[in-house]
Structure formats: C-alpha cells, structure tokens
Design a protein that fits this description.
The chain has helices at residues 20-30, 37-53, 59-80, 88-119, 145-158, 176-189, 195-198, 205-220, and strands at residues 3-4, 10-11, 16-17, 161-162, 192-194, 224-227, 236-239. The protein folds into two domains: 1-123 and 158-167, no CATH class; 176-239, Structural maintenance of chromosome 1. Chain E (Arc Repressor Mutant, subunit A, Orthogonal Bundle), CATH 1.10.10. Helix 6 packs across helix 8. The longest helix is centred in the middle third of the chain and has 32 residues, at 88-119. The chain is 54% helix and 8% strand.
Length: 241
C-alpha cells in the first residue's frame, strides 16, 4: 500500500529536500541509476557528506536522516566486504528502504504530472442547468446501501496512508573521522597495527565496519599501506610516516 512519510523541509545549497528519501532519490537520479543495492552503496558517501555538512537539519527530524544513513552504511559495507553476513532484520530493513524509495519515486512522478495539468489552467466544473431542471441522482436499480459502503471503503483503502514511524533509541553516532584519528593515534604508539587488534574490543557491527572504512580512507590518502599475506588473512596496517 502506498504511504507518505511526513517530514519538514531541509535546505541545501542547491535545493530544498522534503526528508531523507527525497535527498536519497535526488542523489540516485543525478547519477542516472536505478534503485538497487549497488546504486545505494554508490551514493552513500554523498548522503553522509550532506548529513555531516548540513546545518539546517532540525534535531527534531535528525533521527529520520540517521535511520536512513545507518542502512546505507550497511549496504556499502556489504558491497565492500562480500563475506559480511547481515542479520535477517538488517536484510529486511534494506529491502524496506528500497521499497519505500520506489514508492516515493512514483509519488514524485505523479506530482510532476499534476503540476503540468495545473500549469495548463484547465479546470473541471459541474454542468450547470439552464432550463431550471433539478439535478437528480439516478443510481442503478440494484444498488444498495451496502454496495455504496463497499465502494467507499475500497476507495479509502487505495488512498495513501500516513506512516507512523516506530520510536527508535538513537545510538551514539560513530563517524569515520573519529576512527581515522583513532587509527592514527594507535600507529603513533606502535609502528605496525593489525586490523584485528584495532577492533579487538569492538562488539558493535557498525563500529567494526566504520573502522574498516577509516582504514581504507587512510590508504586512499597515502598515509598508510596495508599487507595481507593470504585471502581473508590478518590485515597489517603500516604507517608511512
């Protein structure tokens, strides 16, 4: 059943977004992608960058953005680490996000068509009677009150429903930036560092994934290099300084 997520407007430098789904769909359409795991993983960094840099997201609606951001991190982590096994609930959350995004895309397309019709200034009016005749309702002879009730109920069932979001406990945000600083500090204390030792006391799956992404960011910036003697073996992180 189609649904509408109520949200406030969020202002970026280029456009006003009506919530996290609107921003996410805009990023995907700019890249001319379909709504898939691959495309969501591809725009995850842009979504997180917007969330990090935006000063106009009200705290009242920040939970909506963080909820979507967490799912994007899982999708990107799965793309980077194919061996990462997601729990059934996490898989369902990802599928739900894609389904909601596709439904929202349909509503956006319908809204465009309605705006086109409105711009033509063509309105519909009831037919006026010029002969003094009264308007008479002429239903089919076998139409009963129960039939009318069923018809109205079927129409109401097809109307978009307001989605009541479940209350979620917001966990402490784990940023890649903080993990980069953590790895740098650890490398100052010792020349070599293994990825396993860097996550030894980490039980939260998201924190482990963010630590892995932080390590890749250090490699990309040419601050460290990594060694792995065999597939799925221990990863050594070596500082270049």
């Amino acid at each position: 059943m189609p649904y509408i997520v109520k949200a406030s407007h969020y202002q970026s430098q280029e456009k006003i977004f009506e919530g996290p789904l609107d921003l996410l769909l805009d990023l995907i359409e700019k890249e001319e992608l379909e709504v898939t795991d691959v495309s969501l993983a591809q725009v995850a960094d842009q979504f997180l960058k917007y969330l990090e840099n935006s000063e106009n997201v009200s705290p009242e609606y920040l939970a909506d953005f963080l909820l979507v951001a967490g799912k994007l991190i899982l999708i990107k982590s799965k793309a980077i680490l194919p061996t990462l096994e997601l729990e059934k609930e996490e898989e369902e959350d990802i599928e739900e996000l894609k389904a909601r995004l596709k439904e929202y895309q349909k509503f956006k397309e319908i809204a465009k068509e309605l705006r086109k019709l409105e711009s033509r200034k063509k309105m519909l009016f009831s037919r006026q009677s010029y002969s003094g005749m009264k308007t008479i309702f002429c239903p089919p002879k076998k139409l009963s009150a129960l039939d009318l009730q069923n018809i109205f109920e079927s129409v109401l069932d097809k109307l978009p429903k307001v989605e009541i979001l479940a209350k979620e406990t917001i966990k402490k945000v784990i940023s890649i930036k903080d993990k980069i600083e953590y790895l740098k500090k650890s490398l100052l204390e010792r020349i070599n560092l293994t990825f396993h030792s860097a996550i030894a006391d980490k039980k939260d799956k998201v924190e482990i994934v963010v630590t892995f992404l932080a390590m890749l960011e250090l490699v990309r910036n040419n601050l460290v290099f990594i060694e792995q003697e065999e597939m799925f073996g221990e990863i050594k992180i070596i500082s270049k300084s």
